[in-house]
Amino acid sequence: MKIQDLGTGSARQQYYFRMALYLAVFTVFYNILEGLASVILGISGNCLTLSGFGADSLIEVVSGIGILQMVLRIRNQGTEQRNQFEKQALQITGFAFYLLAAGLVITAAYNGYSRHKPETTLWGVVISLISIVVMTVLLLMKLTTGRKLGSEAIIADAHCTRVCIYMSVVLLVTSAIFELTGLAWIDIVGTLSLAWFSFSEGRECFEKAKNNTCCSCHKS
User: Fold this and answer.
1) Distance of CA 28 to CAs 14, 47, 138, Å?
2) What is the DSSP letter of 115?
3) Containing structural domain, residue 99
4) Residue 18 is assigned to a structural domain of this protein
5) How many CB atoms lie within 10 A of CB 149?
6) At 81, is the secondary structure helix, strand, or coil?
7) Is 65 contained in some domain?
8) Among 60, 102, 157, 178, which is least packed, fewest CB within 10 Å?
């Protein structure tokens, strides 16, 4: 499938391709920073939900590299057909998400049995608020760029960003509830919710790897 013809080499087309590249690169580096900060602060505060959120962000880095490769391919070749590198990146990401989901469920079960309680979830509130703002801006900018280029693949990637927003909302709600009430089980609820999202992301990664033209993320 070819992208929309905006005029070969036109200034307008090159502008939106540069924008797509900048967004892809920013997404990779943002996920690295968010992931490392979340894991470190989650461990220091004994907050499993925040640690799981950070692990998810780090896994997204592999997917983000695949998206960056996708944008370069579309710019250079004008085709939305996935190459082998992108398929392998999706498969690796999907497998990592499955492992994360399993690890979160097992750890949540252990924490419930041992009556584990976070020391603080304040950083979860801070990081989730930042993530919601950043991911919402990325979603809107990716949608605009994809529509201007007429690229279904870039538009589909934008819709996949919604999952990151949903996970940030889960982190925000559970972190805020714990800070206000001190209910220890809310961290377990948040962890299990992230495990479900991780499993869903893993499944979608394998579905995308099978689909040569478009992301299979839900668009609602």
Assistant:
1) 21, 24, 12
2) T
3) 11-210
4) yes
5) 23
6) coil
7) yes
8) 102
79 φ, ψ (degrees, to nearest 5): -120, 150
Which residue bears the tokens 């009556």? 115
- Asked if residue 146 belongs to a domain, the reply is yes
Structure confidence by residue, pLDDT tens digits, 72-128: 887 787 666 666 777 777 788 888 889 999 989 998 898 787 777 888 889 999 999
pLDDT value for 32: 96
Number of domains in the chain: 1
Q: Which two tokens stand for residue 108?
A: 């949540």
pLDDT digits (tens, 9 = 90+) for 132-176: 999 999 999 999 998 988 878 788 778 878 888 999 999 999 999
Alpha-carbon distance of 50 to 193, in angstroms, equals 12
pTM over 0.90: no
SS3 label, residue 2: strand
In 3D space, the residue among 196, 45, 215, 49 whose CA is nearest the CA of residue 142 turns out to be 215
CA gap 183, 186 in Å, rounded: 6
Query: Does 101 map to a domain?
Result: yes
> Mapping DSSP to helix (H, G, I), strand (E, B) and coil, where does residue 113 land?
helix
Rounded to the nearest 10 degrees, the angle between the axes of helix 11-44 and helix 122-149 is 160
CB 127 within 8 A of CB 50: yes
